[in-house]
Design brief:
2 copies of one chain form a homodimer. With 505 residues, chain A is of the alpha/beta class. Chain A has 3 domains: 35-114 and 227-389, Rossmann fold (3-Layer(aba) Sandwich), CATH 3.40.50; 115-223, Domain 2, N(10)-formyltetrahydrofolate synthetase (2-Layer Sandwich); 405-493, Roll (Formyltetrahydrofolate synthetase, domain 3). Helix content of chain A is 34%, strand content 19%. In chain A, helix 1 (19-28) crosses helix 9 and helix 7 packs across helix 8 (217-223). Chain A is globular. Chains A and B meet through strand 1, helix 5, strand 9 and helix 8 of A and strand 1, helix 5, strand 9 and helix 8 of B. Chains A, B: Pathway: One-carbon metabolism; tetrahydrofolate interconversion. Chains A, B: It is an enzyme of class 6 (ligase). Chains A, B: Keywords: ATP-binding, Ligase, Nucleotide-binding, One-carbon metabolism. Chains A, B: One of its GO terms (biological process) is tetrahydrofolate interconversion.
Chain lengths: 505, 505
């Protein structure tokens, strides 16, 4: 029994799919029919302002509409927008717009069917269990943060148990927490349980204590039963869209769940995976974490979205867009520039094409996707479709497991930000933070160097000084934080905020 | 079009119903067929320990199974359990148990389809908007608390914006917040919008500022779109059960949503409404707030659940159970004692019946409902069914609108706790708290005396000194808090906690 219908349930206006069950069924029935969809990575230029999107989701929606119009069975896998920062704020819903829209964007914008909320509750429950463990003398301190789905600047630094023990805490946005990472990276509920058990709750006498040592795992996995099921919706033109996993590749991994992508590849010929903010955040994480370390499929093509204004208006930063396109091409991923126009910019198309030619890009895809949707793209996709259909099904490059952390970060800085190893600077305090993290891992019986590196950075800058000349740019490493359950080590770079908790704008 | 099916959508294993839409349709089609179900209030003895339920939900489930077995179309309306304190803790799921169970208790226990989470997010978003209003100089302070669905003792008192402005806050459990009260009391999304607009966000220059003065209401109502739809599930024996609205009649109103109850009355002949903790909390609030002030239907019968142990084991507190039964009888509500046995207590049935006789109770209904479910009740329901079927459809007594707050509280103390007006004591600070609340209301253009009183109290005590003689018991009023949007004024009594934020036990 490997019919996806048997794994699909109606939830109001969307469907939800038992992706774990479906993937298990495919595994158990190797001869059952399935597709082997190719992955297209939609990423973007580094935005000038993090609060104004380049239009990755709008592009993704227009693209599947255009491909389906050309007779290609294409689906998209989107990340669930962070309700607070997008829908509540001025940025918009992170669910496309105009003709490149979903049928029920309000559902996606305002919490879907409670996936993010369940993850928030489960992460906060872990903190409460840790608090109970402190009361019982099993733990001296807590290393997991509470989360909030609603942004609030005053939650960046809080003191809990005020007037008594006055414990300093920070609150992070739900999509950035370790439990969200675990949901994104796991292929089964068992794996989620194992990873939650391996999460470091805090320390006792200086040694790591994992949640597996004191909680009932079933409480957490029961809580996540609905959250692990991708939602299925569609574009206003009827193209299939799966929504699962949280955003924010600046401060976390920011990728859709691997299970939802794998499921989509079994059901469709082309699967668009959206990952951002810019390529330095989203694409880097999809390639170097999801593919290289967690077995996700390497992209058969990529699209790098920019605005004409992002590409054009700040000459000092104009190096970034071609850098991203070149980097992906060098990885043998056919990479297509896509310029998402604002109203009134149509007359700039010839100049944009000229610039693309000068830069030796593939022919750029250009359109006002909000206004025209997939229709603006369909006639421009010949080269893209040729590259995709004709291309191979590439394997991901080898893992970096075992590579010392600093070497790994230097490699990322060189590959993804164009800053060579010698200009990766260790800030005062970084060495001690690294030692501490190493000792914490050792006491938990795991190795820091076996973890995938999550570069925590500003969404709008690639280096310490993007406006400096190429030979002067540096990257500074500030501190290290271990997410042992997710198998990730966070390294805070450069201009990153220490707490990813925005305010409503 | 008044077929409930047209207002019902599948959400995984449960259904959700557009109750507002259905009630509107009935109103617009006065000749359309509908039922006029009678309400049975299931409440309980004051528990010896708040962490151990008497079994209201188990009773409610067993009761509808027993009534349906007798050919009576009976449904239950349950409150959605508070995920953290019940499912995560030792208390259990607040969704029945054993033979008196729901088909999918795990769904109800762990957040249903995100209703509570959406209300939490919306209430927290209101706080974030208020914070933005402070930044913009429109507000000097914030009077609405943040909420958490997960209990955590260290959230009882927190300091936010730590290291900068160091603002003291408390965090309350989601079900106790004003937005949950608004969802429970409103009959339409318009009413919710109006009530959110009337919520007092904080003050500017000493005067109340309401949310209507600075937020986009649609963001809050959009967020609540799914939360206002009751869920429909069923017992393992197939009896219909609606789940909607939050618990905790000790620190809030603790009633199911009025819309879900009204809807159920249009669909079934008998509707069981569950309200607790004890009758001094849940029944008092259903009668004096829901019915008297908000137009809910007055019960045609009541059942007061106790444990043999609660009734029997502490002679000093044994006055409470007959007090509750007598009080309801005096209100012309036929009231049936029900003793929910633990294992090994069957041999006590004759003694329990004797005691009931001495107290001049109606014949008590006695059974081990966990073990035997509705089968234990069905043969004992003759008197109950006679009273219910033969009884009238009573109107709620007149409103207390305009009654001065202290007089209103004294009336409640006398009626619901057996403490006469002269032994209702105003604690130091109460008078100034009342004056402050009055001034706040006046500056918002509303009158404190027009609001329904919510007595905030311990779930396990009725007075300052339940163990004292009847003539010595007192009730102390501590402070006043206004929920202008919900139209409620909270008065903290006696032993109430100042912050209803438990820890995980």
């Amino acid at each position: 029994m490997t019919d996806i219908k048997d794994f699909t349930s109606q939830y109001g206006l969307v469907e939800k799919i038992d992706a774990f069950g479906y993937l298990d069924a495919l595994k158990a029935n190797p001869d059952a029919p399935r597709k082997h969809g190719k992955i297209v990575l939609v990423t973007a230029d580094t935005p000038l302002m993090a609060s104004r999107g380049e239009g990755k989701t709008t592009t993704t929606i227009a693209l599947i509409d255009a491909l389906n119009k050309r007779g290609i069975d294409a689906a998209a896998v989107l990340r669930q927008p962070s309700m607070g920062i997008t829908a509540a704020g001025s940025k918009g819903g992170a669910s496309g717009g105009g003709k490149a829209s979903l049928t029920h964007p309000e559902l996606i914008d305002w919490g879907l069917t409670g996936e993010m909320a369940a993850i928030a509750a489960a992460q906060n429950l872990l903190v409460s269990f840790a608090e109970k463990a402190i009361d019982e003398g099993r733990l001296d301190d807590i290393l997991v943060p509470r989360v909030s789905e609603v942004p609030s600047r005053s939650l960046r630094a809080i003191t809990v148990d005020a007037g008594k023990n006055n414990v300093a805490e920070k609150v992070v946005l739900t999509p950035t927490c370790e439990l969200m990472q675990i949901v994104c990276l796991s292929r089964s509920m068992d794996e989620i349980g194992r990873r939650v058990a391996a999460m470091i709750a805090g320390t006792k006498d200086g040694k790591a204590v994992t949640f597996g040592e004191f909680i009932d795992l079933w409480r957490i996995t029961d809580m996540l039963a609905g959250a692990v099921m991708p939602a299925k919706t569609e574009t206003v033109n009827g193209s299939p869209v799966y929504v699962h996993g949280g955003p924010f590749a600046n401060v976390s991994i920011g990728i859709p769940t691997l299970a939802s992508v794998q499921m989509a590849c079994s059901l469709h010929d082309v699967v668009i995976v959206e990952a951002g903010y810019g390529a330095d955040a989203g694409a880097q994480k999809w390639l170097d974490i999801a593919c290289r370390e967690y077995g996700a499929q390497w992209p058969s093509a990529a699209i790098v979205v920019t605005r004409a204004s992002t590409w054009r208006d700040d000459p000092e930063l104009a190096w970034r867009y071609p850098f991203h396109v070149d980097r992906l091409e060098k990885l043998d991923i056919p990479t297509f520039p896509l310029v998402n126009l604002w109203d009134g910019e149509d007359d700039q198309i010839p100049a944009l094409r000229d610039t693309a030619k000068e830069l030796e890009f593939r022919d750029p895809i250009i359109g006002n996707l909000y206004r025209d949707g997939g229709e603006a793209l369909a006639p421009q996709l010949d080269q893209f479709v040729d590259a995709l259909v004709g291309g191979s099904m590439p394997a991901a490059p080898h893992s970096h497991k075992g590579m010392p952390l600093v070497e790994n970060v230097r490699w990322i800085a060189e590959q993804a930000y164009g800053v060579p190893a010698e200009r990766v600077v260790l800030k005062d305090g970084f060495a001690s933070s690294l030692t501490e993290a190493n000792e914490l891992c050792m006491s938990a019986g795991v190795s820091l160097d076996d973890m995938a590196v999550v570069a925590v950075k500003s969404p709008a800058t690639m280096t310490d000084n993007d406006r400096a000349g190429e030979d002067e740019r540096t990257v500074t490493l500030k501190k290290v934080e271990v997410h042992a359950g997710a198998g990730l080590v966070h390294v805070n770079l450069t201009t990153s905020l220490t707490t990813p908790m925005p305010k409503i704008v």
